[in-house]
Design brief:
Distance between the termini: 21 Å
Largest sheet: 8 strands, antiparallel
Number of helices: 4
Strand order of the largest sheet: 1-2-8-7-6-5-4-3
Number of domains: 1
CATH topology: Alpha-D-Glucose-1,6-Bisphosphate, Chain A, domain 4
Structural class: alpha+beta
CATH architecture: 2-Layer Sandwich
Strand content: 35-45%
Number of strands: 8
CATH superfamily: START domain
């Protein structure tokens, strides 16, 4: 049996990582799952996401949603959706100002290329320090690839 893997991308940008996968499902189906913060624990590949604790059923530009997290210690974080293009792109950030984005490209024939991007290129020094302490930049590419593989399995099984 062939192992499913996502491609880790080298963007050559400071504090920015990305991964990509092709999912045999329509872009809108995938986007609907990503736009529901309550579903994020289902495909989180980092093990840091403990659950959705607040927010709308469906995310939209400006929506705020809270998540229970654990990186060394448990904490809660409130995210704000900062980019939203129906069926194509969604991004959010929190008080540390880095963004998580999902970009979807319809490849035709019911396939979609999904790229997950973590961008901490323009963040305050305290946030840079937190990234260093947690080792997140080193772990993120692998965690994002794992998340995309989980997303693929969920979307292709529906």
């Amino acid at each position: 049996m062939e192992s499913i893997r996502a491609e880790i991308l080298n963007l050559n940008l400071p504090r920015t990582t990305a991964a990509r996968i092709v999912i045999d499902a329509p872009a809108q189906q995938i986007f609907d799952l990503i736009a529901d913060a309550r579903s994020h624990p289902l495909f989180d590949g980092s093990g840091t996401l403990q659950g959705s604790i607040s927010g709308p059923v469906r995310l939209h530009l400006g929506a705020k949603f809270g998540m229970a997290m654990k990186i060394k210690v448990p904490y809660r974080i409130t995210n704000t959706v900062v980019a939203f293009e129906e069926g194509k792109k969604i991004s959010w950030c929190h008080l540390m100002k880095w963004t998580w984005s999902y970009e979807l490209e319809d490849l035709g024939n019911g396939s979609t290329q999904v790229t997950e991007i973590f961008d901490a290129s323009d963040i305050p020094w305290v946030a840079r320090k937190w990234l260093g302490v947690t080792g997140a930049l080193a772990h993120n590419p692998k965690w994002m690839a794992k998340s995309l593989v989980r997303l693929k399995k969920i979307c292709e099984s529906n």
